[in-house]
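haha ok so turns out i had the wrong file open the whole time. this is the CORRECT one, sorry everyone. sequence first:
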Amino acid sequence: QLQPVESGGGLVQPGGSLRLSCTISGPTLDYYVIGWFRQAPGEEREVVSCIDMYNGDTYYVDSVKGRFTISKDGQNTADLQMDSLKPGNTAVYHCATGPLLGPSSVYTLCGDSGRRNHYSGMRYWGKGALVTVSS
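then structure:
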């Protein structure tokens, strides 16, 4: 069974930066996605960014485009560089992973269709890393 493990959360001032890292332990898949999701108190979980670990395709929610960057770091690790952080970015950030099957893509797993399916294609979830943006 695959197990995502997050690292790198913490406290940062508004306008600052943090880098989260997600490493997937367990059997290696050839075609899979690693994604970052966040959940603030009292709010629903939402996708932040995802990456296709085979071809490098990426997906970002509109609110983080231009400020966050997702990247591969080796075969089973994906990092999320978060710049220009805002207090509204405070949340628990979860890493998740899921296989790419048939016609699925990073967009179907993490985009609007993924959201409608409650991101069910992301089958394995980490415990989360708290990111607090506050002065």
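The chain is about 5% helix and 45% strand.
again sry for the mixup
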